């Protein structure tokens, strides 16, 4: 046993049927509404997951994987993905574990959300689709997965686009406080350490997400339809397990799975990014204050460009797709 507190399987079983039914209807609606921009839903089986993803652009174009964060989903790329496809890229937009139609192939295994698992999922998806290397681009959880793969499997990455710079977690220092103004924005992480927080996420996942959207991006005026498209992905029956474990692991309050121990040991060394990189900070990010990139420079040993995107919040690809697309195009040229 791993010792991970993923809360009672029996409790999850009680809500599984109703949650799955609700998800099926909402996911179908989201897919239908967005099919014109992201294309039809596809699936890729890996050793651990059955990954749902969208694919756009020419089959033999240079590949780029666009990776969403929490609490968001593939609709962060509803504008950026078709823009990149129009430029000749083969664009793949997967749902991360615990989100949307992505499912664990064995429902009985512990549903980890640790950083090594997110990185391994990305490599497994590339293997399943026969993609040798690609531009890896993302923010939040997705940016972390991209950083993990770029650091540990540099030959799989043509170039990296990472919002908020170097995102590999320094778990050994998780107990060290940040400035109070920054800690305030991480309220949900501390909430999720508690049983009350887990119950709150189960009962109020959409309300929590909506609060985070507003606070993460105070200048972004999203409407109810935009939120609903992404919120359908939160009805995944594994969502709560994955999210809770992710934040408990990153704060040193839950162990990782043994199968990821070797990867986590390498990540604990904070490996540098050797591939060409473009890092982005939104000047209106309510979670991570914008920087000039100098504080994270030591983690990038390859070519790197840092940009501040005026007016962008935490969900930068959806809020300012032109800036994100430019970063992908530029890093692809840098890595050519």
Give a description of the structure.
The protein is an alpha/beta fold and 336 residues long. The protein has a single domain, classed as Alpha/Beta hydrolase fold, catalytic domain (Rossmann fold, 3-Layer(aba) Sandwich), CATH 3.40.50. 42% of the residues lie in helices and 15% in strands. It has 12 helices and 9 strands. The chain has helices spanning 9-38, 80-86, 115-128, 140-152, 180-183, 187-191, 195-216, 224-231, 239-250, 261-267, 316-319, 321-335, and strands at 41-45, 49-56, 63-67, 90-94, 103-104, 134-138, 157-163, 277-282, 304-309. Strands 1, 2, 3, 4, 5, 6, 7, 8 and 9 form a 9-stranded mixed sheet that branches. Helix 4 (140-152) links the parallel strand 6 and strand 7 (157-163).
Please describe the structure with a list of short key phrases separated by commas or semicolons.
disordered N terminus; alpha/beta; 336 residues; 9-stranded mixed sheet; Rossmann fold
Short description, anyone?
With 336 residues, the protein is α/β, with parallel strands linked by helices.
If you consult CATH, what is the topology? Answer: Rossmann fold
The biggest sheet, with number of strands, parallel, antiparallel or mixed sense and barrel status, is: 9 strands, mixed
The CATH H-level superfamily is Alpha/Beta hydrolase fold, catalytic domain
Number of strands: 9
Please provide the ordered H/E string of secondary-structure elements.
Answer: HEEEHEEHEHEHHHHHHEEHH
**What is the tally of helical segments?**
12
CATH class identity = Alpha Beta
What is the molecular shape? Answer: globular
Detail the poorly predicted runs: 1-34
Compute the number of structural domains.
Answer: 1
Radius of gyration, whole Å: 18 Å
Strand content: 5-15%
Mean pLDDT: 91
> What's the end-to-end separation, in Å?
45 Å
The helix/strand class is alpha/beta
Please state the second-level CATH architecture. 3-Layer(aba) Sandwich
Helix share bin:
40-55%
């Amino acid at each position: 046993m791993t010792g991970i507190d993923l809360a009672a399987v029996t409790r999850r079983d009680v809500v599984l049927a109703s949650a799955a039914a609700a998800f099926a209807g909402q996911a179908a609606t989201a897919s239908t509404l967005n099919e014109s921009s992201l294309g039809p839903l596809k699936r890729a089986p890996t050793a651990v997951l059955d990954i749902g993803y969208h694919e756009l652009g020419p089959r033999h174009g240079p590949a780029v994987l666009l990776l969403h964060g929490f609490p968001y989903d593939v609709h962060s790329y509803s504008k950026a993905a078709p823009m990149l496809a129009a430029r000749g890229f083969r664009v793949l937009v997967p749902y991360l574990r615990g989100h949307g139609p992505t499912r664990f192939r064995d429902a009985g295994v512990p549903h980890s959300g640790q950083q090594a698992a997110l990185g391994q999922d990305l490599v497994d998806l590339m293997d399943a689709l026969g993609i040798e290397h690609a531009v890896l681009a993302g923010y939040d959880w997705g940016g972390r997965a991209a950083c993990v793969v770029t650091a540990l499997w540099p030959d799989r990455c043509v170039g990296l686009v990472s919002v908020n710079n170097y995102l590999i977690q320094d778990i050994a220092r998780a107990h060290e406080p940040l400035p109070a103004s920054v800690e305030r924005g991480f309220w949900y992480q501390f909430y999720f350490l508690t049983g009350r927080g887990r119950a709150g996420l189960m009962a109020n996942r959409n309300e929590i997400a909506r609060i985070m959207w507003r606070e993460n991006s105070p200048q972004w005026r999203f409407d109810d339809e935009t939120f609903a498209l992404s919120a359908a992905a939160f009805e995944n029956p594994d969502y709560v397990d994955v999210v809770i474990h992710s934040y408990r692991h990153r704060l040193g309050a839950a162990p990782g799975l043994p199968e990821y121990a070797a990867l986590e040991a390498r990540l604990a060394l904070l490996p540098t990014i050797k591939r060409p990189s473009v890092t982005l900070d939104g000047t209106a990010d309510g979670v991570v204050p914008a920087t000039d990139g100098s504080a994270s420079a030591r983690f990038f040993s390859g070519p790197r460009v840092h940009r501040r995107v005026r007016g962008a919040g935490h969900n930068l690809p959806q809020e300012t797709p032109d800036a994100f697309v430019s970063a992908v195009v530029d890093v692809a040229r840098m890595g050519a």
